[in-house]
């Protein structure tokens, strides 16, 4: 609507945020009080380009361009809950995009050391602006997602904010022993499932947690094999 129209009224983002939590997050069995409080407080509309702000609290993934998406709120909430965060952990968010998930982690009141890794400068600029105001302790880095961020490793928790076929080996190597990766895993044929991958002395083991419609991170799709 044209802002010069006498019937124009600005969107009440604060009210929309509360409706999101009450209608999408809590009915999805997200009961962790730190997750709920963070999602009630953090302005999701600042994690999207201006043209998408009216849809910031819709119950769907939002396109950010170049096949990248802001994950659906209820999926984000459930992923945060299954992280089972412990105070003071070192956390890496891979595919941090516009910073919403990283900012939520930083504002959950658990003293986390959060690093956000993003390869797209446009998305990272939005994320930095969001975190500058709401989560200034988040450390931002730009670089290839497949390499992770070895400089700050090992991490107690790595969260991949987008679906992958397989977890890149570099991320497994940057995980502390006993640490875990939370990631939506989408096999070549099948349903995308948010899974927990735990590193043990014997290797790594994956536990499926819940199904979720999460778009693939194109940068982390394996290169197609040559067929002769």
Question: What is the element layout, followed by pairings?
Answer:
Elements: H1 13-25, H2 33-41, E1 62-65, E2 68-70, H3 73-82, E3 90-94, H4 100-106, E4 113-118, H5 121-134, E5 139-142, E6 155-160, H6 169-173, E7 175-185, E8 193-200, E9 203-211
Parallel strand pairs: 3-4, 3-6, 4-5, 6-7
Antiparallel strand pairs: 1-2, 7-8, 8-9
What distance lies between the first and last C-alpha atoms, to the nearest angstrom?
Answer: 56 Å
Computed structural class: alpha/beta
Order of strands, main sheet, comes to 5-4-3-6-7-8-9
Q: Describe the largest sheet.
A: 7 strands, mixed
According to DSSP, the number of beta strands is: 9
Low-confidence runs (pLDDT<50, min 5 residues)?
4-9
SS strand fraction: 15-25%
Key descriptive features of the protein:
single chain; 228 residues; alpha/beta; seven-stranded mixed beta sheet; two-stranded antiparallel ribbon; 6 helices; 25% helix; 25% strand; globular
Describe this structure in words.
With 228 residues, the protein is of the alpha/beta class. Helices cover 25% and strands 25% of the residues. The chain contains six helices and nine strands; from the N terminus they run H-H-E-E-H-E-H-E-H-E-E-H-E-E-E. The chain has a seven-stranded mixed β-sheet with strand order 5-4-3-6-7-8-9. Strand 4, helix 5 and strand 5 form a beta-alpha-beta unit. The radius of gyration is 18 Å and the shape is globular. It starts with 12 loop residues before the first helix and ends in a 17-residue tail after the last strand.
């Amino acid at each position: 609507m044209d802002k010069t129209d006498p019937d124009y009224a600005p969107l009440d983002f604060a009210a929309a945020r509360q409706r999101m939590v009450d209608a999408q997050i809590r009915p999805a069995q997200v009961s962790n009080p730190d997750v709920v409080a963070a999602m009630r407080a953090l302005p999701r509309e600042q994690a999207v380009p201006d043209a998408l702000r009216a849809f910031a609290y819709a119950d769907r993934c939002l396109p950010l361009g170049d096949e990248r998406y802001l994950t659906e709120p209820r999926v984000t909430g459930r992923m945060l809950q299954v992280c089972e965060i412990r105070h003071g952990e070192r956390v890496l968010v891979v595919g941090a995009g516009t910073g919403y998930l990283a900012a939520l982690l930083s504002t959950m009141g658990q003293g986390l050391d959060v690093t956000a890794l993003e390869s797209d400068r446009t998305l990272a600029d939005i994320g930095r602006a969001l975190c500058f105001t709401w989560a200034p302790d988040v450390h931002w880095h730009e670089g290839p997602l497949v390499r992770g961020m070895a400089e700050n490793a090992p991490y107690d928790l790595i969260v991949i904010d987008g679906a992958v076929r397989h977890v890149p080996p570099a991320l497994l190597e940057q995980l502390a022993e006993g640490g875990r990766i939370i990631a939506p895993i989408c096999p070549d044929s099948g349903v995308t499932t948010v899974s927990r991958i735990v590193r043990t002395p014997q290797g790594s083991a994956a536990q499926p947690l819940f199904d979720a419609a999460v778009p693939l991170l194109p940068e982390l799709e394996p290169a197609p094999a040559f067929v002769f």
